[in-house]
Amino acid sequence: MIQRLTIVVLITLIFFTLLLVPISHQVSAESTRAESGNLLMTGPVYMKDINGHWAERYMDKMLRKTIAYGFLDQTFRPDQPMSRLDVAIMLAKGLGLETWKTAEDSLDKLLPFSDLSTLTTEQKRYVYIVSGLGLMIGDQAGTFRPHDAITRDEFATLLVRALGYERETESDQVDTITLPFADKKEIPQWAYPYVQVAWDHQLMIGYEENGVETFKPKRQITRAEVTTVISRIDAMTVSSADDPVRIGSVAEVDASVSQLTLVTAEGQRYVLSVRSDAAVYVGGKESTLTQVKAGMRAEVIIDGNGRVSYLEAGYTLDQPDEILQMVKGTVMDNGWNSVSTNSENTAILRVKKDDGTTFNITLKSDTSVYIGDETSRLIEIQKNARVSVIVKKESDGTYVAKEVRVFSQTHM
Q1: pTM of this prediction exceeds 0.90
Q2: CA-to-CA distance for 163 and 218, rounded, in angstroms?
């Protein structure tokens, strides 16, 4: 998993590298206008145009974590282009960079852009963050162009830099990554390695139409697409102590009084009230609290009043009160060699945590495996993949995986 502080340090280190890239590659000359949302329209607010959308779950989750936001007319406008301003704000929020804010009276002096007069003080603070860290810069005319759209190749470049993957674009290994897109020749030369790395980490994927996969590098990236990517990044980062997210096993559900009891991997027990307007997903599909059962693994987002505003429940555990642990780290071996198959039709996955601790984790035939958001197989997990594994500790001290989720895979 990626530490938020590590991201900030990496961003600072690559600042001078960014300055070597022509400004024309930071802001597209062909950009068109895109409407920007309102920062007040976040949290558990009703958005009338996201129900049934392919990205509904991601938009719902990011809204309730106050990372995403919509418009005053209670729309999110998921299929409209996202403005540079909204990309800047959501990226800063998603990476936890808000501590880089500065005093209101010094903002106008510190910001070198001439086209920010219509922005609120809060919006200017986020522009200060991303521009001060070198993530997004302006053009030769000294403008930031906050209400311009951003293309998919530009967004891929921004993502790779923001997550500290810049070095991978300069490696000889990037040449071994074969993009599957039929239109890859349309990707500009300067953006090609960034698209390669973004795709390799499954931060961005393409479109499939009539069996043909394309990337559409010059298409303006939509608000739904950006929110989905930010949701993936959010899942990759280690939460802070004040993060409103709790993950654990459901010990008890009483839908009649909208109450949920959750037990975390650390053994903490939470009795939580569930809001009447809470977003509930079971197995990745929109659902209701009545469909959440004791023994399911769940992730909840808690609002400022201590109530559940978002609930996502998954597979059922063997016992309602069994305690789960999350192991986050790097796969030590490659391909089939990453597992040792034994006579009981199980396999051993070796994972090294960031603190150096090694876990030998047993995987069974019913272990769920995901690469990004897609269901996958154990054989697809590669050496040095960054993984998050939900495990149950057995009485004999062994760890059995309930779920393996791959967040990134790199070619070493």
Answers
A1: no
A2: 22
